[in-house]
């Protein structure tokens, strides 16, 4: 069964412990950029995921 986008976003928001602004600021720090598993380039997998998380958080 597929959920509509609004349902997914409303379920997602309570699970996130940072605001989009806080997450965006964190992702810019040296500490954030220096940790995590890296594959094929200099940015970690988790760092890339963090960038993708910001977008749906801002849409609501």
Automatic annotation (TrEMBL):
Pfam families reported for this sequence: DUF3140
Basic and acidic residues bias (residue ranges): 27-46
Compositional bias per record (Basic residues), positions renumbered to this chain: 48-60
Top-rank lineage group of the source organism: Bacteria
Region (Disordered): 27-60
PANTHER family according to UniProt: DNA-BINDING PROTEIN, POSSIBLE DNA-BINDING PROTEIN
Name of the protein in question: DUF3140 domain-containing protein
Annotated organism of origin: Plectonema radiosum NIES-515
Lineage: Bacteria, Bacillati, Cyanobacteriota, Cyanophyceae, Oscillatoriophycideae
């Amino acid at each position: 069964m597929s959920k509509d986008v609004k349902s997914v976003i409303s379920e997602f928001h309570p699970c996130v412990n940072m605001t989009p602004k806080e997450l965006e600021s964190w992702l810019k720090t040296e500490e954030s950029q220096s940790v995590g598993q890296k594959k094929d380039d200099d940015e970690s997998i988790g760092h890339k995921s963090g960038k993708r998380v910001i977008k749906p958080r801002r849409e609501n």
